[in-house]
Amino acid sequence: MNWQHDLNQLAEELIKAGKLSSARWVDAFTQVPRHVFVPRFWLQDKNGWRQVEASSDEGWEAVYSNRGLFTALDDNQLGISSSSMPSLMTRMLEALDIQRGHRVLEIGTGTGYNAALLSTFLGDGDVYSIDIDFVGTAAQRLASIGLQPTLATRDGREGFPEAAPFDRIMATCAVSSIPLTWVEQLTPDGMILADLKTGRCAGNLVLLHRLGPEHAEGRFVSGWADFMQMRTGTTADVPATGQADDHGQPECSTTRITGRPWAHTVPWFLASFRLPAGTGFGMRIREGETWWTITSPDGSRAEVRDIDTGQDRDVLQFGPHRLWDDIETAFDEWEKAGTPDWDRFGFTVEPGAQVVWCLDTDQSWKVESGTS
Ligand SMILES: C[S@@+](CC[C@H](N)C(=O)[O-])C[C@H]1O[C@@H](n2cnc3c(N)ncnc32)[C@H](O)[C@@H]1O
């Protein structure tokens, strides 16, 4: 197994796909052996989860391909740490315009792989990385290839005040709002790149520039990213799914929205401002047919039939809240605005208010700041 050869091939693949372009990040990327940081990982198939060693043929192939790999599961078999897709890491590192001499804070050390990329480019003296867990193992793996960035175990919402200010902060877990502490810990020209998710799959990477001690603003980034949600202890910041009961007879209608509604990422994000907090989604088989389900904590549920005949699809709505009506309204508004893509949306962070805005309309949406 020749990691250098396989890593160079992966770099070529990312370059061809336009996910890695700058010489400095190609150089760093091709110096960091990924199997050191992902010696084993979890794969899920119809029989459940199984652990795969990177030293096996199957494991090696996965580690040196552009795949995100789960590296830790909790007691409920939910992924709580992973090595993100290499292309997502390179895309974020390039989007943040990291220059030599910058001090960078990463929120979400995980395996330590991204901290290794940062340390290889910047030198480990300028790299800081924190995680709510896993930091000991990451430190050992980094040290095994001669890197010693400053790592700490703590809740990422706090940032790293004793090491601030930072020129760049990148979060590799998703947040439901941007902690003001991050803005406070930036240098005057500092920038933050984080995955803002107001609900499950509802949001994307946003690149923020510091405009004042407690004021940052910027745009969402083209393309798509979906990090695991930041945890508070063992609780996900945004619940993964709602539980729903059958509330008697459903209200029946049809819809012209195709596919899985959450796969239309922009209008799904806009719908999250209408849907109840904690709305989740899943799948259900009814009389042998697949239906996509959307459920909220009050027991409301919407189901849409998974057929693609080119005709309108059946929708069933149960419970006190008409979830599908909210989704339809958000899709309609998005279409009226000319179907703006992610880069037409921006975000402002100020004390007391975090607001998403659209460049094509005068609409804005307030983000609930929750515990962040
Ligand atoms: C996708 S992984 C990070 C991948 C990592 N950057 C790497 O290169 O392997 C997300 C990480 O966020 C961490 N995390 C979750 N909640 C957190 C919190 N409240 N504070 C800090 N880290 C948190 C998880 O423990 C997990 O390791």
Question: How would you describe this protein?
Answer:
This is Protein-L-isoaspartate O-methyltransferase. Its EC number is 2.1.1.77. It holds the Pfam family PCMT. The protein has 372 residues and is of the alpha+beta class. The chain folds into two domains: 3-236, Rossmann fold (3-Layer(aba) Sandwich), CATH 3.40.50; 251-336, Double Stranded RNA Binding Domain (2-Layer Sandwich). 24% of the residues lie in helices and 34% in strands. The chain is built from ten helices and 21 strands. The protein has helices spanning 3-16, 23-29, 34-37, 57-63, 86-95, 113-122, 135-144, 180-184, 265-271, 323-336; strands at residues 40-45, 48-53, 69-73, 79-83, 104-107, 127-131, 150-153, 166-175, 186-199, 202-212, 215-220, 231-232, 235-236, 251-255, 280-286, 289-295, 301-305, 313-318, 345-350, 353-358, 364-367. Strands 7-6-5-8-9-10-11-19-20-21 form a ten-stranded mixed sheet. A five-stranded antiparallel sheet has the order 14-18-17-16-15, covered by helices on one side. Helix 6 links the parallel strand 5 (104-107) and strand 6. The longest helix has 14 residues, at 3-16. It is globular and about 65 Å long. Mean pLDDT is 93; it is low at 234-244. S-adenosylmethionine is lined by residues 80-84, 107-108, 110-111, 113-114, 130-134, 155-156, 172-173, 227-228, 230-231.
Unreliable residue runs: 234-244
State mean pLDDT (0 to 100 scale): 93
Tell me which CATH architecture of the largest domain applies here: 3-Layer(aba) Sandwich
Q: Structural class, please?
A: alpha+beta
CATH class of the largest domain: Alpha Beta
Main location: cytoplasm
Organism: Saccharopolyspora ipomoeae
Enzyme class: transferase
Keywords: Cytoplasm, Methyltransferase, S-adenosyl-L-methionine, Transferase
